[in-house]
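=== Given protein ===
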Amino acid sequence: MKVSIFDVAKKSGLSVVTVSRVLNGAESVREKNRQKVLDAIKELDYRPNAAARSLASGKTGIIGLVVTTLHDSFFDAVVKELNEVLALHGYFLAIAISRGIESDEDHYLIQEDRVDGMILLSPIGEENYIMQLKRRGIPYVLIDNQEPENDTYSITIDNFKGGYAAASHLLELGHTSIAHLCGHEMFRSTRERRNGFALALQEKGITPFEIVQGDFEIEFGYDTCKRWLSEGQLPTAVFTGDDNIALGVINALMEAGISVPEQVAVVGYDDHYIASQLRPHLSTLRQPADKIAQAAADMLLRRISGKMKRGSGIRIDPELIIRESTVSI
């Protein structure tokens, strides 16, 4: 039997009007009641009739998402959360994996009448996207964007705070020889994490063992650590720009018979699924994909409905997760 809006109202203990307001992104609903409705929708697996809503509203019922890759567990987690949250509001998520605004996939999504709104996840060349979207009058939200001047409609992680927290944790454990392996310079997250790391050490009057730039890949961590081993010099702690790099470092250390964390402590970033499966379990900075997706969806729905009159970016704090790679078992 098909679930109706009346079933959702009964399950949540609220009125049909309140359920309708939640589905339409109204800001007047109390957060507690909004959550009750979303929980009921999820439990009942309620799906609003997208076709009927599109006819009534003159909208497509489609949200476009542009992402540069899905070979990243953090991106993957954000996309899954976005898909789920937007589905609760009767929207279909159309995904384009692209490297630039000139690609066919992006051009198709951004054409007039194709989508009701766009989400750009860690975009490269975001200025070009924004110019096109503004010209066509398409509401948009950025996630993990590269340029601070575009933070008006964005959801970002405080990566500076994350880098600072990682370094501070290692300093509190007594480490003074600390290396940082960071990602590509084009990414704002790379620069912010490195700057936070550097400030924490600077405040203690400590010079980094080494700061090395590379790709967010296992090979980068592995090759860099192998070089340290061949040179006969190892830091006592390493902060890596993501968990893939950390995995490479740990693999090289384990191959050489170097104990983690007794001889070298390691902190990653992202809290990929693999972080809690490694041996030793990886200490890392968690980026809350659920909070990021919810915030992005809420902002975009408010823009689409015209309820967001003034832009205001949202900055979300990462969370330090301490596991075995920095604390002895």
